Write the C-alpha cells for this entry.
Amino acid sequence: MERRSDIEGLRAIAVLAVLLFHAGVPHLEGGYIGVDVFFVLSGFLITSLLVRERESDGGISLGAFYARRARRILPVSSLVAVVTVIASWFWLEPLRLRSLANDVIAVATFSSNFVFANRGADYLQSTLPPSPLQHYWSLAVEEQFYFVWPAVIALACIGAASRVSIRRRVGILATVVSVASFAMCMVLMNTSQPWAFFAPHTRAFELSIGALFAVLPVATSKSAKIFSGLSAWVGLIAVCCCVVLFTETTKFPGPWALVPAIATALVLRGGNTTSWSPHSVLKWAPFQWLGSRSYSAYLWHWPMFVAFGVRQDRVRVWPALLVSILLSECCLRFVEQPMRSGWLGRQWRILYRPKLRRPLRIFCVLSVIIFLPTTALVVGLLRTPAPIAGQGGAVVDFDESVLTATTVLDNSSTVPSEQIPD
C-alpha cells in the first residue's frame, strides 16, 4: 500500500491531541479522542491491506498477517513494558507493585483493557492512581479486533470472484459490525461505563467504520473528487473541534464517539483526492515527523508522565514530554526502522516467507521469548514483599486485606463514571 502523507499527518494530530490532553493543557480537554482517531485509522489501513491481498492472491494468509502485526507491534511495545517494569521497582510505591504485576501480565497477553475495565468498575479500585501501563488498553483492543477480523473477512469472501463482490461483502460485514457494536456500547453506557470504554465489542464500531470506508468506491469524476475533498476538510475541522470542545464530562464513548470516528473516516476518504485536500496541510514536515514517531511517542509518554509525577506537579510535564519524544526518536532509529528495512527486518522476512510454512509458530515463539522474561520478572520480583520506610525494615505482605485497607473511601466519595483516563 502506497504511503499517504495525509494519513501520516493525521497520526501526528491524533498523538499530539493525546499527549497534550494528558499534559493538562487548557482548552484541549477533548484530546482523548486521539485514540478514537487511531482506531479508525487502524481499521482503514488493515482492511485495505486484507482486501487487496484477497483481490490479488485469491485468499488471505492469516499466518503472514499475524507475523506482520508481530513485527510492527511487539518490538517497541515489549521494550517500553520491560523498561517500565524495571524502572517501577525504584520509583513506584510498594503497595502499587502488585497491581503493576497484574498489569504487565495483561499487557503480555493483550488483555489489559479487561483488567482496567474491571478496575474502573470496582468501587474500591476506581480511585487508585492510574497504572503506568494503562495506555496499553487501546493496543489490546486493536489486537483483539485483529485476532478475529482477518478470519471473518476471509470467510465472508468465500466464493467471491470479482473485486466488486469482495468489497461489497466486506462493506456489508463492516456495516453490521458497526451497528451491533455501537448498540452494545449504548447499552453498556447506561449500566457500566468503564466496560463501555474499554471493552473490544463496544469500541469495534470505530475500527469497523474505518474498514467500511476502506472498501467504498474511489472517487473518479471531477464532482466526486471535489465532494470528497470538501468532506475531508469538514472531517479534519470536526476532529480539531472535538479536541477543543469535548471535556472529561462528555458522555463518552456514547453517541459523541461517532463524531470523531466519522470525521476521521471522511479525512481518509478524501484526504488526497485533490491538490487542495487536507493533505496539502497534513504533508507539512512537522506533521510528517511526528506522525512517523506517533506509535513510540504514544507508548512512552504515559510511563514518563507517571514517573515524573505530572499529576502532582504540572511543571514537570514539559520535561516528561521532552523525554518521551527523545525516546520515541531512539525507538524509531534503533528499533522500528531496523525491523522495517534494516538487517533485523531482512532476517524477519526470511523467517516468515510462505515457503517455510512457519509464520504462526514464529509469531508464538517470538511472543514467548519477549514476554516470558518480563512476566517472570514481575512475578518473581514485584510480588516480593517490600519494606516500609521508617519501620525498621518491617515487611508488608501484599495480601488482599492490606491492599483493600489502603483504598477505603469516605462515604461521601463518588466514583467518576465519565472520567476514565486514556
Notes: Strands lie at 386-387, 395-396. The mean pLDDT is 82. The longest helix spans residues 62-91.
